[in-house]
Write a sequence for this structure.
């Protein structure tokens, strides 16, 4: 539906209630003064909309009449009659027929868009068939007519008000974008300083438009993204993208489409379109229509003067004035103007003028460069330096570009010659001003030396022994703490500023330089007038004349205070580290002695009623990793045999002493006759309250030689492994929290019926633990090795230690119990 037809339908719908009342179908009500005022305003609004629609359509019809006059060589009246006849014969409306006539006569970009739309949607439900007016199963000719009428009506409205961007925005929304579902449109003008100005808008509340009248440079908006990327940008959901833009408060999750407007490679601004709801991906033909509308905006923006008084004062000079500006600059400057190809696209830049201070890197005179194309004169500008791309972007967007120490390359006899320069590129009207300042090598090296001396805290001097003149640089004044107006300190006066303890070394230094005429250096403590003492290194060398007589002395001072105090701190750290290492070695030695005193590495086999017990203990290879592993076998007064193994967390003297406390505590508690679960519960209380900052794991078992029943409990420890008849199996894992974690813990105990020749293995995690394997994998490996380790008890334990895959360098303790 076109904007013209839609307005007529609105008018008919609005007029229907009045007609019904007049026919007596609706009960008559006495009109109120407010009701009459509302009706009057509504009637006037409809009349204005109908007048606008008629004006837009009339402009398109008049354009078609003009084409008929030129082709038929007839009068305007005859052209009007011919248009009426064609409408009746074709069954088309005057707007549709006028659009068709203009398309066939002009064959311009708008007609290409309409033809492309028909071609791509000719299948009825092709790409984009559900988007915009005329989609779905409509006839291709109808779709062509709809698109052509919409675009041609928008074009005629734009041309009719080409000097008013605000009216153009309203015409675009009414005639072309409204049928696509858009609710608002904004036309942005790109300013030379990189800012955006709202040149025209439609559909946005007045207060919102006033808030967005000006967007400063650097603010990332939807229009800014289109301007920077120089292409059409589509945002499905504005809220999801997180970009600010005009109308976001009214339609926070609506879709946006923004396309740059411009011709000839120069972008005048951006056309931004707003939809109220999330925007589905648009078909290419819809995007082409929007691009065609952006070209219509570009025509208006070229002819439209700035509406802002401040912008009016900022109108940029033309090329002649820009040439005068380039001549007044102290730096080399080049004035460039765009060169377009046959399709109106930017192809190159013409060098319109080179400043009087211009120096060509190739050595050509200014006359050979003036008037040439940029890429012909400097083909490497399109290379790695990217200078041509920078100039093109500045010309397109109007945003100036500045850079320091940019490499510029030119061909000298086919040899690339690179120089470093500070670059400035700015757009002035339709032209571009390029300014550069080649960095002087001598000045650059002097500046580099100055920075090096400042960073290294070095000051230089030269003392002429013939004239008595002494020269210092600024850094040397700073090292001495003297103002630049103070007289320099001569070498012979230096002892008066040094610490007395440095007098001998300073005397040897002066004799070597002044008497023996050889280079020398000295470290001294410089006492400044502000009371600060700095550690300084002075290096000097003699300068001899043609007769080998001492003419001058030159050298440098370097502040080495930071280095001196670093060396002092490093020496103190070395002493402290050596003391700490000695203390640590002594602690490790004591821990190892304590551990070996309680549990010797090679204990004797233990004989108990009904049992034979063998122990293997392997201490850590590194003394610093001495841990808290323990084992114990004791015959209780009740005749039961207590078997236990445990591991205190950590290493060193704390772990060793914790092991002694827990092992002896468990021995003392066992004489009470309590079961394994109760013993571990009491041991947990001891660990938590009496052994501060200690946690441990343990397994405790009570074996009855008469019944061969063993009751056992665990506190976070790995379960024992039973070997019977050539097969091995770990005890089922029962609950039991490690010792010392909580104050009150109840433990669970289980009973196991052992048989003659059974072997029971109790161990610490140093036997199985690996960094690259889980506990279950390591335990499975232990079970397999235990099942294959046949023979006597000592042989079984030795094989277990030999085939252990542990890689943690921790203590290892294994108890083997053979049932008799």
């Amino acid at each position: 539906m076109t904007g013209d037809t839609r307005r007529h339908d609105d008018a008919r719908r609005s007029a229907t209630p009045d007609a019904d009342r007049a026919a007596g179908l609706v009960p008559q009500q006495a009109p109120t003064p407010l009701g009459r005022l509302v009706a009057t305003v509504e009637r006037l609004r409809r009349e204005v909309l109908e007048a606008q629609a008629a004006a837009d359509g009339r402009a398109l019809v008049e354009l078609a009449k003009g084409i008929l006059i030129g082709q038929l060589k007839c009068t305007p009246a005859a052209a009007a009659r011919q248009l009426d006849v064609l409408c009746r014969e074709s069954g088309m409306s005057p707007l549709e027929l006028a659009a068709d006539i203009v398309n066939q006569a002009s064959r311009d970009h708008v007609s290409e868009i309409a033809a492309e739309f028909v071609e791509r949607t000719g299948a009825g439900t092709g790409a984009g068939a559900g988007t915009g007016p005329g989609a779905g199963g409509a006839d291709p000719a109808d779709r062509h007519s709809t698109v052509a009428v919409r675009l041609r009506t928008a074009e005629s409205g734009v041309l009719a008000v080409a000097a008013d961007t605000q009216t153009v925005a309203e015409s675009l929304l009414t005639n072309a974008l409204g049928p696509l579902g858009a609710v608002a449109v904004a036309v942005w003008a790109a300013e030379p300083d990189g800012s955006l100005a709202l040149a025209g808008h439609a559909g946005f509340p007045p207060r919102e438009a006033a808030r967005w009248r000006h967007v400063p440079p650097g603010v990332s908006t939807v229009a800014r993204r289109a301007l920077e990327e120089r292409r059409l940008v589509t945002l499905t959901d504005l809220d999801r993208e997180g970009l600010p833009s005009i109308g976001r408060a009214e339609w926070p999750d609506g879709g946006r489409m923004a396309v740059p407007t411009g011709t000839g490679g120069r972008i005048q601004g951006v056309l931004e379109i707003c939809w109220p709801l999330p925007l589905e991906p648009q078909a290419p033909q819809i995007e082409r229509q929007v691009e065609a509308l952006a070209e219509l905006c570009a025509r208006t923006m070229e002819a439209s003067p700035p509406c802002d008084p401040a912008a009016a004062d900022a109108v940029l000079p033309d090329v002649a004035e820009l040439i005068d500006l380039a001549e007044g600059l102290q730096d080399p400057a080049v004035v460039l103007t765009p060169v377009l190809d046959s399709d109106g696209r930017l192809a190159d830049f013409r060098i319109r003028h080179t400043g009087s201070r211009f120096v060509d890197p190739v050595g050509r005179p200014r006359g050979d460069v003036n008037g040439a194309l940029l890429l012909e004169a400097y083909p490497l500008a399109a290379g790695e330096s990217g200078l041509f791309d920078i100039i093109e972007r500045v010309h397109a967007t109007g945003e100036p570009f500045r850079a320091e120490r940019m490499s510029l390359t030119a061909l000298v006899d086919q040899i690339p010659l690179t120089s470093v320069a500070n670059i400035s590129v700015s757009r002035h009207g339709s032209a571009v001003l390029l300014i550069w300042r080649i960095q002087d090598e001598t000045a650059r090296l002097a500046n580099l030396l100055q920075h090096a001396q400042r960073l290294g805290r070095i000051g230089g001097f030269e003392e002429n022994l013939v004239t008595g003149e002494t020269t210092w640089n600024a850094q040397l004044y700073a090292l001495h703490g003297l103002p630049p107006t103070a007289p320099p300190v001569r070498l012979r006066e230096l002892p008066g500023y040094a610490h007395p303890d440095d007098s001998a070394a300073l005397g040897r230094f002066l004799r070597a330089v002044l008497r023996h005429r050889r280079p020398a250096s000295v470290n001294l403590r410089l006492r400044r007038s502000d009371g600060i003492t700095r550690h300084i290194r002075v290096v000097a060398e003699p300068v001899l004349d043609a007769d080998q007589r001492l003419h001058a002395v030159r050298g440098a001072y370097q502040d080495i205070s930071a280095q001196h105090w670093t060396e002092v701190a490093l020496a103190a750290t070395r002493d402290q580290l050596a003391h700490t290492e000695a203390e640590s070695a002594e602690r490790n030695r004591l821990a190892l002695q304590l551990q070996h005193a309680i549990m010797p590495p090679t204990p004797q086999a233990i004989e108990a009623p009904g049992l034979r017990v063998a122990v293997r203990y392997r201490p850590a290879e590194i003394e610093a990793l001495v841990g808290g592993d323990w084992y114990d076998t004791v015959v209780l007064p009740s005749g039961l045999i207590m078997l236990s193994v445990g591991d205190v967390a950590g290493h060193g003297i704390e772990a060793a002493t914790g092991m002694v406390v827990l092992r002896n505590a468990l021995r003392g508690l066992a004489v009470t006759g309590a079961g394994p679960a109760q013993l571990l519960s009491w041991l947990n209380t001891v660990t938590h309250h009496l052994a501060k900052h200690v946690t441990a794991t343990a397994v405790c078992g009570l074996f009855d030689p008469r019944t061969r029943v063993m009751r056992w409990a665990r506190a976070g420890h790995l379960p024992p492994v039973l070997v019977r008849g050539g097969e091995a199996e770990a005890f089922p894992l029962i609950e039991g929290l490690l010792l010392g974690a909580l104050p009150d813990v109840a433990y669970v105990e289980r009973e196991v019926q052992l048989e003659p020749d059974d072997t029971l293995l109790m161990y610490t995690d140093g036997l199985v633990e690996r960094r690259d394997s889980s506990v279950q994998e390591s335990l499975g490996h232990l079970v397999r090795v235990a099942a294959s380790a046949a023979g006597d008890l000592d042989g079984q334990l030795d094989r277990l230690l030999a085939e252990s895959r542990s890689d943690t360098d921790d203590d290892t303790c294994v108890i083997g119990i053979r049932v008799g």
Notes: The radius of gyration is 48 Å. The chain has 24 helices and 27 strands. Residues 33-72 form the longest helix (40 residues). The longest strand covers residues 415-428.
